[in-house]
């Protein structure tokens, strides 16, 4: 994707970005001139990023663990020399279960990665952005943060939480010229949505093709979007 603006000299951190939407976001930022640090838990994908011909560096970090988030952030800022852009991309699908059958562990893990990691990284980034006169935080939520979906209660709760967190941060940080915005994608084509479609179809005893059609029916254009669309 050809960048629409120049980010030369900017320093960016993107969470959960060694593959999928996050990687496309990171590479788009780099193409626009930013220096980019990302984290992930997939060591194979991390190695792929670090061996690619881009200005993106990847490190291991389990975003469910606050101490690992602090370590990753400190290391990333040490290499970048600061941070101007934070993209909280982290998000897992979570359990596809009823509230009665899912485990508390799976609920907690979904909230930790999808919501608490956004809070922790924003809290770490804000003081550094304030020191340089401003910055930008972009949190990735979902249409699941605007609507309710059966069998997805922790995912829904976390994505609604991201919107609420972002609204609060925007008011807290706006006077310091730190912008906080949210992107709410619908169905984004890729491996993860195919797994979600297959699991949901199995739970509802319908064919995956029918389940995909139901998902797409909620879109005004009746289509899925691409990671490039989110990055743009």
Number of folding domains?
Answer: 1
Spans where pLDDT lies below 50 across 5 or more residues: none
The strand order across the widest sheet is 3-2-1-4-5-6
Which H/E pattern describes the elements?
EHEHEHEHEHEHHH
The percentage of residues in β strands lies in 5-15%
Structural class: alpha/beta
Annotated CATH homologous superfamily? NAD(P)-binding Rossmann-like Domain
At the third CATH level, what is the topology name? Rossmann fold
Indicate the overall shape: globular
The CATH architecture: 3-Layer(aba) Sandwich
Number of DSSP helices?
A: 8
Q: Taking all residues together, what is the mean pLDDT? A: 92
Number of strands: 6
Tell me, what is the CATH class? Alpha Beta
Distance between the termini: 8 Å
Instruction: Please give the share of residues in helix.
Output: 40-55%
Rg over C-alpha atoms, rounded to the nearest angstrom:
18 Å
Q: Mind describing the biggest β-sheet?
A: 6 strands, parallel
Describe this structure in a few short sentences:
With 232 residues, the chain is α/β, with parallel strands linked by helices. 49% of the residues lie in helices and 13% in strands.
Description:
- The chain has one domain: 3-Layer(aba) Sandwich (Rossmann fold).
- Helix 3 runs parallel beside helix 4 (104-131), helix 4 packs parallel to helix 5 (153-173) and helix 6 (191-204) crosses helix 7 (208-217).
- The protein has a 6-stranded parallel β-sheet with strand order 3-2-1-4-5-6, with helices on both faces.
- The model has no long low-confidence stretch (mean pLDDT 92).
- The protein is an alpha/beta fold and 232 residues long.
- 49% of the residues lie in helices and 13% in strands.
- Strand 2 (35-40), helix 2 and strand 3 (56-60) form a beta-alpha-beta unit.
């Amino acid at each position: 994707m050809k960048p629409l603006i120049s980010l030369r000299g900017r320093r960016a951190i993107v969470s959960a970005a060694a593959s999928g939407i996050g990687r496309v976001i990171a590479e788009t930022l780099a193409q626009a001139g930013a220096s980019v640090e990302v984290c992930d838990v997939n060591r194979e994908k991390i190695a792929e990023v670090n061996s690619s011909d881009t200005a993106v560096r990847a490190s291991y970090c389990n975003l469910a663990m606050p101490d690992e988030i602090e370590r990753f952030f400190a290391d990333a800022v040490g290499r970048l020399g600061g941070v101007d852009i934070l993209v909280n991309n982290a998000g897992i699908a979570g359990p596809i279960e009823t509230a009665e059958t899912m485990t508390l562990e799976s609920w907690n893990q979904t909230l930790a990665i999808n919501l608490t990691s956004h809070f922790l990284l924003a809290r770490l980034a804000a003081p550094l952005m304030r020191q340089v006169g401003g910055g930008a935080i972009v949190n990735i939520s979902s249409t699941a943060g605007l609507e309710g979906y059966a069998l997805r209660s922790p995912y829904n709760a976390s994505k609604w939480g991201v919107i609420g967190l972002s609204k609060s941060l925007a008011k807290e940080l706006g006077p310091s010229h730190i912008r906080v915005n949210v992107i709410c994608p619908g169905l984004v084509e890729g491996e993860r949505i195919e797994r979600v479609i297959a699991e949901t179809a199995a739970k509802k005893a319908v064919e995956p093709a029918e389940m995909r059609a139901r998902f797409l029916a909620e879109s005004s254009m009746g289509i899925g979007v691409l990671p490039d669309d989110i990055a743009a």
